[in-house]
Each structure stands twice: as structure tokens, then as C-alpha cells.
Amino acid sequence: MTESANKKILIVEDDMIISLVVENMIKKLGHILVGKAASGDEAIELAKEHQPDIVLMDIRLKGEMDGIEAVTQIKEHIRTEVIYLTGNSDKVNYERAKATECIDLISKPFTIGELTRSLELVP
Q1: CA 27 to chain centre
Q2: pLDDT at 5
Q3: Using an 8 Å Cβ cutoff, are 56 and 9 in contact?
Q4: How far apart (Å, rounded) are the C-alpha atoms in residues 61 and 16?
Q5: CA distances from 122 to 15, 20, 55, 119 (A)
Q6: What is the pLDDT of residues 45-96, one digit of tens each?
Q7: Does residue 35 contact residue 46 with C-beta atoms inside 8 Å?
Q8: pTM for the predicted model, two decimal places
Q9: DSSP 3-state helix, strand, coil percentages of the chain (rounded to 5)?
Q10: How far apart are the C-alpha atoms of 120 and 78, rounded to whole Å?
Q11: How do beta strands 104-107 and 54-58 pair?
């Protein structure tokens, strides 16, 4: 396993099936899952508690806050890298996501190869 493996990762995804699929991909790639959240508020709390190296963030979440707003708040508290997972890559959300200095934006559904490529972009 390379040094780039063993990253601490937080999954923020409100679809439990997708969340499980992503969790399995992360574990298969040798990374450490530090938590899973379905809402922005939950994501912020888990991020502050676990200080993940990477947050895999869905843009559409349960509750009032979307993933982009959650990332903005997370980055006020901790230093972390963000990869957005989205089924909705319209231009407005893409521009908002880019403004948070994310590493990548992956459209769902995605393969383990696509996730690996994105994770390799993380310094």
C-alpha cells in the first residue's frame, strides 16, 4: 500500500445505498472511514470531531443545508480536502462547488477507478 492510502475519510451522503457502496470502495482502497453523515449539520459535527483528511460530500443532502454550504462551514473549523459526489452537475452548483476549493467533482454513478483517480489528486 502506498503512502497516499490510509487517508481518513468522512462520507456525507443521504442515500444509504450509495453511502454503503462508497464505504466499501474506500475500505477496498485501504483508507480509513472515520464517519458517515446524511445531513450538513451532522457532517460539520463529525468533521470537527474526527478531522478527516478528505470529505466525500454529496451536494444534495437531507435538511435545509446542501453539501456546498456544509463544506463552507467545515472549512471554517478544520483543514480538509473535499471531493464532491453529485447526481446534479449543473453549472450553478459546479461553480459554487469550485468556489470551495474542492479537489474534484465526481458525477454519480461512478466507478472505483474514478474515485481512485480523484483520491490521487489529494496532496
Answers
A1: 15
A2: 59
A3: yes
A4: 12
A5: 25, 22, 11, 6
A6: 999 999 999 999 999 999 999 999 999 999 999 999 999 999 876 888 899 9
A7: yes
A8: 0.94
A9: 40, 25, 35
A10: 21
A11: unpaired
The position carrying cell 466499501 is: 24
Residue that is written with C-alpha cell 444509504 in the block: 16
* All residues at 6 or more sequence positions from 6 whose CB lies less than 8 Å from its CB, including other chains: 30, 31, 32
User: How many Cβ atoms from other residues are within 10 Å of residue 86's Cβ?
Assistant: 20
Q: Which residue type sits at 60?
A: R
Long-range CB contact pairs, 111-120, < 8 A, 24+: 112/25, 112/28, 112/29, 115/22, 115/25, 115/26, 115/29, 116/29, 118/83, 119/4, 119/7, 119/29, 119/31, 119/54, 119/83, 120/4
Are the CB atoms for 56 and 83 separated by under 8 Å? Answer: yes
* Sole residue written with cell 460539520: 44
Beta-carbon contacts of 47 under 8 Å, excluding residues fewer than 6 positions away, are: 10, 55, 74, 77, 78, 80
Residue 9, beta-bridge partner list: 33, 54
